[in-house]
Every structure is written in structure tokens, then in C-alpha cells.
Design goal:
This protein is of the alpha+beta class. It has a domain of 230 residues. The protein contains 14 helices and 13 strands. The strands form 4 sheets. Strands 7, 8, 9, 10 and 13 form a 5-stranded antiparallel sheet that branches. The chain starts with 8 loop residues before the first helix and ends with a helix. The chain binds delta-meso nitroheme.
Length: 458
């Protein structure tokens, strides 16, 4: 069974607050920390049930917590009996850079290089003030039991871009939901609970009992070159009859993502944005990439959506065969939030990033190799997915270190992306700039509340 009082609130539905703080820490005094974990932190951990109730009596700052592999070691959850059996998690993200095709750790935030981070506390609230007061009370209760290693503050963008990521596209539209909830929106993936939660039906890996209802949290600080992005679009518009140059640039951006800025899927609205469709959660996800009446996509027709589009690379739907797709086992729940300020007038006029901004990327899955790592490596970074000639995911696809998988492209070279021009799918759009740059991150495990109470604390 699934008890939503046991599952941390960010995992299945996200904490969904306008501001969020990620506090990365090391455990300095394990015994002291374990006592405080039970007495002081556990009562503050927000559950899925609490978020669903939308309880007005709930605390004004929501809190979740997760541990890295070295964090579990520090808590003495070691040995075969405690083995979570996820090799990516066990090694830590710094040791996964080759699989992710990060160009080493040159662009990484120095604190993410290594495996010193033991855990992350996520604080989410309506205001920065609430977060700051929760943070200072945590700092005084935790004292020297932890050391703060790094923190990142995320915030929703100001109106009219609330809910949109920094390139301008509405985010948080398509996330899988669990089949046990039975409340899916049209087109939403319904997945077995075990694809997201460890130890639930669908998770076929051997796990310690205490790991049940936890989930692996992938954190990535993804810097976005925001003013550079519209410059690229302006320089290479798709010139279609009936489109102005500006509309041709918007079309190019929409086809790179697979959605217009409003959220409307290009597959449903191929030539122009449709803001009514974008904001309609009963329609904006209701497509499979197959033509009406078909259960499989026609991979030779990219007129309505490129095979390289970000949302198609990361969730190919009927490109993989007849739906339902829940047998593909490559779903994850995304719960990230933008970080950094709006583009300044200086940056906009020079088309050059001066201040860092991007996405504090968070994903939850029961298996990092099937979830985040698979999407990044086997789909986004692989130009031959879903067939030869497709090219990279133009938003997040990185050049591979694994030479053969990338058809000979070497790190640092230009990235070919095809299919973006609907009338000339073979037209190659070579990307000289990575619009998304990995600043690194870590792999964590967000345990259930009973695991925190009975196994990880004192
Ligand atoms: Fe993506 N973007 O603004 O272009 N993403 N993403 N992502 N992403 C999505 O459908 C973006 C990243 C997925 O079910 C949307 O909710 C940016 C990574 C998946 O149809 C937009 C960054 C990975 C989906 C963006 C980034 C993914 C998805 C449409 C980095 C995995 C759902 C909104 C800075 C490795 C696909 C929506 C589906 C959607 C953008 C990162 C995966 C607008 C800017 C690293 C699975």
C-alpha cells in the first residue's frame, strides 16, 4: 500500500511554492545530528498528504530532506543490509560526469566537486522572509552538528513569467502521476508507483525494507545562457510563407522545445502559439506524436514536431510504440525552480550573460540509471535517437565522451540538430553554443518519514 503521510511532499507533486532554498550540508557530529534529525527536523518534514490537503494551518515554510551516499555512510547506514542498490547514487554525481557528458567538472560549482556533501535541506515558501526565519532557527537548533557547504536560492520569475523558466517557456506541464491515484489529466503518463518510489510495485531492484517510499533526488544546477538564446533564434528564423521574421524565430524556439512559450504543444499547434491551449491543462498535454487514429508515430514526418525537440527526446510517447507507454520505465517527476535574476538591459542589448541564472533542476525517480541518467544520456545526448540523423536535444543535449554513441562527435565540437525546419527536415542547425551549461550537482535519496524516524535518526 501507499500511505501519503509517509512520503516527503516534494516527490510526487512538488512543493510548488514561489521561493525555495537548497541547503547542502556536511554532517560534522553524527550522534548529535541523528538526535536532532528525530527531535527537531522530522516534525518539520512536509508530507505529500499535507500538501494535498492544502492545509492553511500547515507551517508557512515547507521542509524536505535528502541524503547522499556519503551522507548515509556518515549516518552509519552502511553494509549490504543498507545497500540501496543504485550504482549512480553510490558513486555520486561527480563520478557520473562521463555518463552525463558533462565536459569534466570545469564548469562545476567547486562545492559539488567531490563527495563531501552529505545531504540537502529543501525549504519552500511564499516569501523569502519565511525561508530566512526557518533557516535561522534551523541553524541555531542544528548548531555544529552540521556544516553548511553550499546553498542555492530559487524563485519563480515575476509576472507575467510566473511558472515560466528563464528562456520564457511555461514549465511544470507534463509530469507523470501514479496509477494508484487514478486522477490523470488527458495525456499525462500514468506510471506504477515503483517508477518513482522505491519498494513499490514496479521497482524490481532489491532494497532494504527501510528504503520503501523513498525516492532518488537528482539535483543539478543548470546555468542557462538566456540572452544568447533569442540571439540564436533571431539569426536563424524558419522562413515560411506567411510568417514574419520574428514569427519564424519564435517558431524555431518552439520547435527546439516542442512547446510554445505559453505551453501549447507544437504538435497540436504547429505554426502559431495558442495561449488558450497553453493554459488548458486538459488539452495542453493531450497528444502522443502519433497521427489521429494511430497508435505509433510516423517517424518520417516531423512537420508537426521535430524528433529532436526537448519534450520529444525526453518523453517520446508513441515514438517508442503503441501506448500506454508505462512499460518504458523511463519516467521521472520534475520539481525544479528557476534561480538567478531577470536579464538586465545591459545583458539584453549585448546578448551576453553577465550574471548567472538558470534552473535548479530536481527530479525524482526510483532508479537514477532508468530515470534522469537515461533521459540525459540515451535520449538527449544521443543523436541517433529515435533514428539516425535526428541530432541532439537542442536544449540539454551535450556532446558525448563516448565516441561511438555520438557518431564521432567529440566534446567541444558543434552539436548538429535536425528536423527543426518543417519544410526541410534535413536542414542542419548546428549549435555552436550550449544554451544550458551544467554547473554540477549531486545524487540524493529522499527517505520516507518512517525511515527517518526509525532507521536514520536516534
Ligand atoms: Fe526539460 N526548457 O525550458 O526548454 N523542459 N528543461 N529537462 N523536460 C520541459 O512539459 C528545460 C531538463 C524533461 O513529458 C519543458 O512541463 C530547461 C533535463 C522532461 O512531455 C520545458 C532545462 C531533463 C520533460 C523544459 C531542462 C529534462 C521536460 C516543457 C535546463 C532530463 C517533460 C514543460 C535548464 C534529463 C516531457 C513541461 C513531457 C519538459 C525546458 C532540463 C527533462 C519548457 C531550460 C536535464 C522529462
Amino acid at each position: 500500500g501507499l500511505n501519503l503521510n509517509d512520503v516527503q511532499g516534494d516527490i510526487l507533486i512538488g512543493m510548488r511554492k514561489p521561493v525555495e532554498l537548497f541547503l547542502f550540508f556536511g554532517i560534522s557530529n553524527a550522534t548529535d545530528f541523528k538526535v536532532k534529525l528525530k527531535g527537531e527536523i522530522l516534525p518539520l518534514v512536509t508530507t505529500t498528504a499535507q500538501i494535498l490537503r492544502d492545509d492553511t494551518s500547515a507551517p508557512s515554510t515547507l521542509l524536505n530532506i535528502a541524503f547522499s551516499n556519503t551522507g548515509l555512510v556518515a549516518l552509519n547506514a552502511t553494509g549490504e543490509a543498507n545497500n540501496l542498490n543504485d550504482t549512480a547514487f553510490a558513486a555520486g554525481q561527480v563520478n557520473d560526469v562521463k555518463n552525463l557528458s558533462d565536459p569534466g567538472t570545469v564548469n562545476w560549482v567547486p562545492q559539488f566537486v567531490g563527495t563531501n556533501i552529505h545531504g540537502v535541506i529543501l525549504l519552500a515558501s511564499d516569501t523569502e522572509d519565511n525561508i530566512n526565519s526557518t533557516l535561522s532557527s534551523l541553524q541555531s537548533t542544528l548548531g555544529d552538528s552540521i556544516s553548511e557547504i553550499y546553498s542555492l536560492r530559487g524563485a519563480m520569475r515575476p509576472p507575467p513569467n510566473k511558472g515560466h523558466e528563464h528562456f520564457g517557456f511555461l514549465d511544470g506541464i507534463s509530469n507523470p502521476t501514479l496509477d494508484v491515484f487514478q486522477d490523470s489529466k488527458p495525456g499525462q503518463a500514468l506510471v506504477p508507483a515503483g517508477e518513482i518510489l522505491v519498494g513499490q510495485p514496479g521497482d524490481n531492484v532489491t532494497r532494504p525494507d527501510w528504503a520503501k517510499d523513498g525516492s532518488f533526488l537528482v539535483f543539478r544546477q543548470l546555468k542557462q545562457l538566456v540572452p544568447e538564446f533569442p540571439k540564436f533564434l533571431a539569426d536563424s528564423p524558419i522562413l515560411e510563407p506567411g510568417l514574419s521574421q520574428e514569427q519564424g524565430s519564435d517558431l524555431l524556439g518552439a520547435r527546439m522545445v516542442g512547446r510554445w512559450k505559453s505551453g501549447a504543444a507544437v504538435f497540436l499547434s504547429p505554426m502559431f502559439d495558442d495561449p488558450d491551449l497553453g493554459r488548458d491543462y486538459n488539452r495542453n498535454n493531450n497528444f502522443t506524436f502519433a497521427d489521429p487514429g494511430q497508435t505509433k508515430s510516423n517517424l518520417t514526418d516531423q512537420s508537426k514536431c521535430p524528433l529532436s525537440a526537448h519534450i520529444r527526446k525526453t518523453r517520446p510517447r508513441a515514438d517508442l510504440g503503441p501506448l500506454p507507454e508505462n512499460s518504458t520505465n523511463h519516467h521521472m517527476v520534475r520539481a525544479g525552480i528557476p534561480y538567478g535574476p531577470e536579464v538586465t538591459t545591459d545583458e539584453a542589448s549585448s546578448n551576453t550573460t553577465e550574471i548567472e541564472r538558470g534552473l535548479a533542476f530536481v527530479s525524482y525517480q526510483s532508479n537514477i540509471m532508468n530515470g534522469f541518467q537515461f533521459l540525459q544520456q540515451a535520449w538527449a545526448n544521443t543523436p541517433t535517437f529515435r533514428q539516425p540523423g535526428v541530432g541532439f536535444d537542442p536544449i540539454i543535449g551535450m556532446l558525448c565522451f563516448v565516441f561511438n554513441r555520438c557518431g564521432g562527435a567529440a566534446a567541444g565540437a558543434d552539436r548538429p540538430v535536425n528536423g527543426l525546419d518543417p519544410t526541410d527536415p534535413a536542414r542542419n542547425f548546428t549549435l555552436h553554443t550550449d544554451f544550458v551549461v551544467s554547473r554540477g550537482g549531486e545524487y540524493f535519496f529522499a527517505p520516507s518519514l518512517p525511515a527517518i524516524a526509525n532507521t536514520l535518526s536516534l
